[in-house]
Amino acid sequence: MYISLYKKRSILIAVCISFWITGFAQQNPTTDNYLFNPVSISPAYAGQQNGQIQTLYDAQWIGLKGAPRTGSMYFDYMSPKGLAINLGIIDDQVGPLQTQNIGLSTAYHLQLSKDLYISAGIRYTMNKTAVDILDEFYWDKVDQSIFNIDGPFFQNVDLGGSIYTKTWYLGSTFKNIVVQEMYTSNYTARVGHIFGGYKFIIDDNYVLSPSFLVNITENAPTDLNLHAFMEYKSELGLGFNYSPKDEIGTFLKMRLSDNYSFFYQFNYPLSDLVYVTTQSHVLGLGVDLIPDAKKIISPRYFL
């Protein structure tokens, strides 16, 4: 039966977007990277990795064709007066859908008392998507027009806030405030995050940091993530993460030298994905470009 080019394009786009939504309902790359780079969850945490440039690569669901692959790079800086910026670049691919994103986060950290701070942040993002049908969904070798479908550039805004001390933090974020149309009848989803954590100082060498993250996404199940991280002298740390019905994993932080840090995370699926894949990995490297920059800001609560 003959199908018009317009209908072909609509069907292909619908399939691709559905693949993307299904994948991200399981585990968004920014969720995996949250412990390594908290600003990926909230712009209010711009400045917490002060003076550091960080690169991350997230390979989810190894062995599954078209599984999510995400590369990112961030630079973070905070002035002595509490004004902070974070510039991030992300390239993400899920099946035939590729998204490129550049985001600028700004935040202000205000000291309310000797140990109590609040921060508020806003992020502006510019996004571009494209669908490549050539490999994943190969429909018609003659019709060249459906091989690549370029989506529009679209912008968005995230807002976040937090309150914290030397031993605990609590915050929330509202992402994708402006609903944008990516393709015909396909729109960006609003996302909310609620997060918090506590620092148990065991002795002069060891610190235990449990934390939680709740993700609330339009038209998707609420996602709970629990973490526990044990660190030795800020040089070596090992932690565990758990998301019910989603995944369980472990993560590692290692200080390679005064200016270099290495991050690694392994996740095992708890969903039906276990029948086709048993592993996801995150690799990261942090480089402190500004010596001693972290000494001039409030305490850090992340890796």
Q: Strand order of the main beta sheet, please?
A: 1-2-3-4-5-6-7-10-12-13-14-15-16-17
What characteristic shape results from the CA principal axes?
globular
Alpha-carbon Rg, integer? 20 Å
What's the overall average pLDDT, rounded? 82
Are there runs of 5+ residues with pLDDT below 50, and where?
1-27, 136-147, 295-300
Share of residues in strands: over 45%
Q: What structural category do the secondary elements indicate?
A: mainly beta
* DSSP summary, beta strand count: 17
Secondary structure tally, helices: 2
CATH topology: Porin
Name the CATH homologous superfamily: monomeric porin ompg
How is the main sheet built?
14 strands, antiparallel, barrel
Please give the domain count. Answer: 1
> What is the CATH class designation?
Mainly Beta
Q: What are the secondary-structure elements, in order, as H or E?
A: HHEEEEEEEEEEEEEEEEE
Q: What portion of residues is helical?
A: under 10%
Cα end-to-end separation = 57 Å
